[in-house]
Specification:
Helix content of chain B: 25-40%
Number of helices of chain B: 2
Strand order of the largest sheet of chain B: 7-1-4-3-2-6-5-8
Number of strands of chain B: 8
Number of domains of chain B: 2
Shape of chain B: elongated
Structural class of chain A: mainly alpha
Radius of gyration of chain B: 22 Å
CATH class of the largest domain in chain B: Mainly Beta
Oligomer: heterodimer
Helix content of chain A: over 70%
Radius of gyration of chain A: 22 Å
Largest interface: A-B, 33 and 26 residues
Shape of chain A: elongated
Largest sheet of chain B: 8 strands, mixed
Number of domains of chain A: 1
Strand content of chain B: 25-35%
CATH architecture of the largest domain in chain B: Beta Barrel
Chain lengths: 261, 146
């Protein structure tokens, strides 16, 4: 009993400490965005890594998500006799919910893990201390390009996911199930307005900030992990970063849904 | 070679991503109609239950506009619906606006039956309306009005 209470206390203290560190980290990163010099070259490199190289996986998963949605909605809507609502059903569920969430999960799996591991290894090799010694702001030099690249890339990837998903649904609906293609697109265009689209963009932006923040901060504070060090600590924080990013992203998804719908 | 390919790949990504956003916003959500060149008409309905902003307005099954706003008219306790009608479409002062449902679970829309009077202009009101049909009300009418 005594030990249980002690455990609750110590984990709360650890959590509050981590929250404080992470908040300060985010503040430092955002502050460093406005400091000179602006590393355009690094930004392009990160855009290539986070955005361009995620494009194939996003297109593939978007295509299959749209196709699965179309199959599912087809079987439900034929029972109700309103199969002409297929376009809006696929489009709305993609644009409002599945596009931002699936794209964010794909990017977390691909980019979050590697970013966290990379930064954790830099910390282990004391590269940040070296940068600070040379009067180079490590936030400016290492974090800001990744942060900016993520918040530029993820909304764009989400838009690609949405468009590809809509055409995946089109393929299944029109070519496999024999619906009218014009009907599918017209129904989609009629039902989807600026508000749904705005929601998609805001969500993906929020998800991008959350995942890149958690991944970078977990790696940056790898030396605060209790009881582990070296390679073991890197693997531990990488796992933790991916899990925490995904959970925080889904939580933020619920919050933004309740505010935006 | 490597430098060129890096910039090329990033540029390609940005172009594809931005064109996806443009496609979604212009084609799918159709926000090209900034400051639509139509005109506004109002109509008072006894009951506009289920009608939403952006609902379609049809004449003979052809889309001629959409619902701009729905509010309560405090004097008559009726639903005041403002409609944006495409320019070039004439609606006469004896036209009838009725709220209909597309299919069984479909959306509500406004069907306008044209008349033969003088055309309405911006800000006018369609006087004759039919409210949306509520199945619950019909059922209760048959059950309790004997």
């Amino acid at each position: 009993m005594f030990r249980l209470i002690k455990l609750i206390g110590s984990s709360t203290i650890l959590f509050v400490e981590e929250l404080g560190r992470f908040t300060d980290f985010l503040y430092q990163v955002i502050k460093s965005i406005f400091s000179r010099p602006f590393g355009g070259r690094d930004l392009i490199k990160q855009l290539e890594f986070i955005g361009a190289r995620s494009m194939s996986i996003i297109i593939l998963s978007g295509l299959f998500t749209g196709m699965v949605l179309a199959l599912l909605f087809y079987s439900v809507l034929t029972r109700l006799g309103s199969v002409d609502l297929m376009g809006s059903a696929v489009g709305l569920s993609l644009i409002q919910e599945l596009g931002p969430v699936m794209a964010a999960i794909m990017v977390i799996a691909r980019v979050g893990s590697s970013t966290c591991a990379e930064i954790a290894i830099m910390r282990n090799e004391q590269q940040f201390d070296a940068l600070t010694c040379m009067a180079v702001n490590p936030y400016r030099f290492v974090m800001v390009p990744r942060f900016l690249a993520a918040i530029i890339s993820v909304p764009l990837l989400t838009a690609i996911f949405n468009v590809v998903g809509i055409f995946g649904g089109y393929i299944v609906g029109v070519y496999l199930k024999g619906l009218s293609g014009t009907l599918y697109l017209q129904n989609l265009i009629d039902k989807i307005g600026w508000e749904e689209l705005r929601m998609s963009v805001i969500k993906s932006f929020v998800f991008a900030v959350i995942f890149i923040w958690i991944s970078m901060a977990k790696g940056f504070f790898v030396h605060f992990e209790k009881g582990v060090s070296g390679a073991e600590a890197v693997s531990l924080v990488t796992t933790k970063a991916v899990v925490a990013s995904a959970i925080a992203m889904l939580f933020a998804d619920y919050i933004s849904n309740s505010f935006l719908i | 070679m490597k430098k060129v390919s890096l910039e090329f790949v990033v540029g390609l990504f940005l172009i594809v991503g931005l064109s996806a956003i443009v496609y979604l916003s212009v084609v799918v959500s159709g926000i090209s109609g900034f400051g639509s060149d139509g005109y506004q008409l109002s109509a008072k309905f006894e009951n506009s239950s289920g009608l939403k902003r952006g609902a379609v307005i049809e004449i003979a099954g052809v889309k001629i506009g959409q619902v701009e706003s729905i509010e309560l008219d405090s004097e008559t306790q009726e639903s005041m619906v403002w409609m944006s009608i495409d320019s070039g479409v004439e609606i006469q002062d004896d036209a009838v606006a009725s709220i209909r449902t597309a299919g069984i679970i479909g959306d509500k829309f406004i069907k306008v039956s044209t008349g033969g009077g003088d055309p309405l202009v911006d800000g006018d009101e369609i006087i004759e309306t039919e409210p949306s049909i509520s199945i619950e009300e019909l059922v209760s009418k048959y059950m309790f009005d004997t």
